[in-house]
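Title: [Solved] Inositol monophosphatase 3D structure

Original question kept below for reference.
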Amino acid sequence: MTDHAALLSVAREAVAMATGIIRSMTSFSVAAKGDRDMVTDVDLAVEDAVREFLARETPEIGILGEERGHAGNEDLWWALDPVDGTANFARGIPLCGVSLGLVDGLKSTVAAISLPFLDVTYTAAEGQGAYAGEERLEASKATKLSDAIVSVGDFAVGEGAEVKNRVRMALLAELGGRVQRIRFLGSAAIDLAWVAHGKLDATVILANKPWDTMAGVLLVREAGGVVVDTDGGEHTVRSAATIAVGAGLRDDLVEAIARVHG
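Solution (posted by the thread starter after getting help):
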């Protein structure tokens, strides 16, 4: 049986180390890694340090990092985004974070997200609740979309982006006429952590890169929210999208998204 308490301690230590590196590297270079995508020296330094730490502390667990790919166990593995929100970070916008989730089969069971410039660390373990520091989190209790602040994930880049972004434009039109406010934060880790924290009522991320999402998905679920795919089915690591929402808004939000996809 996986010892979630022990592994959560490892995850906390890993994101604390990453936060120290991010705060200490006051100068860095930025390089292109694809169409309108980038990587910094900091992303690489954090991922390398965290991978080394996790390989030493949990050698039986694999790891998937955004910058270096997958190594080791494919059934039980860490999902790491060393700097989620690199575009924000590179411009000095403090909305970025380190995201580390433990994926067991199709779902995450341990999570730690550190927001280095907002001085908060979010943690969760399966069945143990979600926390910001020592504060136990509770997702939104809103029941009307007209009362909801909803964040939307980044527009697509790279191959096929034009077609994918037509759906995103339709989503903005659909939600813009129904919700209280729409927000673009530029970091899936923050989107999901803030749904867990009740700062956002929902987030709609029309993608599901495990390093971006798996830690935050567990936070939302442990805070009493729900996370689904575009069809309303339960979110897993194989889902096409990541839609996190307070339970009272689930049906209305899924219906709105279905109209866009229809």
